[in-house]
Amino acid sequence: MDLAQKRCKPCEGGVRPLTREQSLELLKALDPAWSLSDDGLSIARSFAFPVYDQTMAFANAVAQIAATEDHHPVLTIEYGRCRVSYTTHAIDGLSDNDFICAAKIDRIATGATP
């Protein structure tokens, strides 16, 4: 399944979040560095860079994905590192959108077009 080719669908609530089992299955389509939180409500991955400007360039690329997909992560930026965390706030858990965006981020992390 190529999640990076999919587009996010608007989520205004009223749907159930993914189960832990569904999330673990979708996680298999992502880079193994992504992890599911203990409570099963979010996924996260840290990316390391040798210099700050590369960290910021990556964060800006993630911001572009967020704007295009209208689905926004939590970004924690430090010198040489950017941590990306996804959850779908409208449903208090994970949705397909979280995994779609994570897959797009995996592509930019490897230098591919999202």
| Global outline | globular
Into which percent range does the helicity of residues fall?
Answer: 25-40%
Oligomer: single chain
Number of strands: 4
Q: Report the sheet with the most strands, covering strand number, pairing sense and barrel closure.
A: 4 strands, antiparallel
Mean pLDDT: 93
What are the segments in which pLDDT stays under 50 over at least 5 consecutive residues? Answer: none
What letter string, H or E per element, gives the SSE order? HEEHEEH
Count of discrete alpha- or pi-helical segments spanning 4 or more residues: 3
Structural class: alpha+beta
Percent strand equals 15-25%
Measured between the Cα atoms of the first and last residue, the distance is 15 Å
Strand order of the largest sheet: 1-2-4-3
Give Rg in angstroms.
13 Å
Description:
Helices cover 35% and strands 17% of the residues. With 114 residues, the protein is an alpha+beta fold. Strand 3 and strand 4 form a beta hairpin. Strands 1-2-4-3 form a 4-stranded antiparallel sheet, covered by helices on one side. The chain has 3 helices and 4 strands, in the order H-E-E-H-E-E-H.
